[in-house]
Specification:
This protein has seven helices and eight strands. With 322 residues, it is α/β, with parallel strands linked by helices. The radius of gyration is 29 Å and the shape is extended. InterPro entries: Leu-rich_rpt (IPR001611), LRR_dom_sf (IPR032675).
């Protein structure tokens, strides 16, 4: 699709909000007429459903019954189920641009999206935006609804936070930037309270951040930060990495998906005041265990010295991926 807006239109078509049993059609056309005229019958009396039409309850059952051909798959999100049910009970709410007022959570995963366009501003109630596994390289904050509380950009190609931090959503509580292309030390300056005053959770895992001291100095300004994920960055190879973070950020509750117990924090007490322990280099020792499928060198040693036996040379290549 290219843009988030185009992907959303494709998403709506996939949901079939205008097709049976959703939307308006011959299966519930009297519902539209009933909504247009005032009720004059006494309270407690219900108008009979015309022949050939279905009650809203029967249509909802077609959506909810797991054996129904119109049911959504089990892995569908609550937002998708909500939109389908709204399309049954009040289809007029999803006509035209009014659909943007209903959506509070938008998940567009692995759809080839490259651009976060200004069409997102139509979602005036949007609180959660998940755009993982796409091809987004930059996010312009002016295109993000101010109501956002969750922004997930995992598995994209984001390499610079400057555009995102120009005017970020003020109420954002979670920012997910794992598996991107962030490199230090130029990006740490964008991770302060000046940009994210209400941030509770931050995922920077599996990027290329290297400067632990600079990163900690910026993150320490985030007074509401409780969950931090940094594993997969080169700075995580530094031996006192976890202890230094625990002592430097005393309000953290979870680091790299591991809960921080008081005993562990006490164990590293005072480490934050010893930055000289943080070295700018790391060493990795790789040990090769048993290898199968290789010729036995002892078989070549049975040839006598000076014999005319064939010369056999074996070479091997070992590749390490970090």
């Amino acid at each position: 699709p290219g843009s988030v807006s185009a992907a959303f239109q494709e998403y709506l078509q996939h949901l079939g909000l205008q097709d049976f049993p959703c939307g308006l059609g011959s299966w519930n056309k009297s519902q539209l007429n009933a909504s247009r005229r005032p009720r004059v019958e006494p309270a407690g009396l219900e108008e009979a459903v015309p022949l050939g039409e279905e009650t809203p309850e029967a249509l909802l059952e077609l959506l909810r019954d797991q054996h129904s051909p119109w049911a959504l798959p089990p892995e569908c999100s609550p937002q998708e189920q909500l939109l389908r049910e709204v399309a049954v009970l009040a289809p007029e709410l999803l006509q035209g641009s009014r659909v943007f007022q209903v959506v509070k959570s938008l998940r567009i995963l692995d759809k080839g999206v490259e651009e976060v366009d200004e069409g997102l501003l139509q979602f005036q109630q949007l609180e959660e935006l998940i755009l993982s596994a796409n091809y987004i390289s930059r996010v312009t904050s002016a295109h993000l609804p101010r109501t956002l509380k969750v922004l997930e950009l995992c598995c994209n190609v984001v390499g610079d936070l400057q555009d995102l931090c120009a005017q970020p959503p003020p109420e954002l509580q979670h920012l997910g930037l794992g598996y991107n292309r962030l490199c230090g030390p130029s990006q740490e300056k964008h991770l302060t309270v000046d940009f994210w005053p209400n941030l509770v959770s931050l995922d920077l895992s599996f990027n290329s951040l290297t400067d632990l001291l600079e990163l900690v100095s910026q993150l320490s300004t985030l007074q509401n930060l409780r969950i931090l994920v940094l594993q997969g960055n080169p700075l995580a190879l530094i031996p006192p990495y976890r202890g230094f973070l625990l002592d430097s950020l005393p309000k953290l509750s979870i680091l790299d998906d591991i809960y921080i117990w008081p005993e562990e924090r006490q164990q590293f007490h005072g480490l934050a005041r010893q930055p000289e322990l943080i070295r700018s280099e790391a060493r990795v020792v790789v040990s090769i265990g048993e290898m199968k499928g290789l010729p036995n060198p002892e078989a070549f040693q049975q040839l006598e010295v000076g014999s005319e036996g064939p010369m056999i040379t074996c070479s091997y290549c070992v590749t390490y991926e970090f």
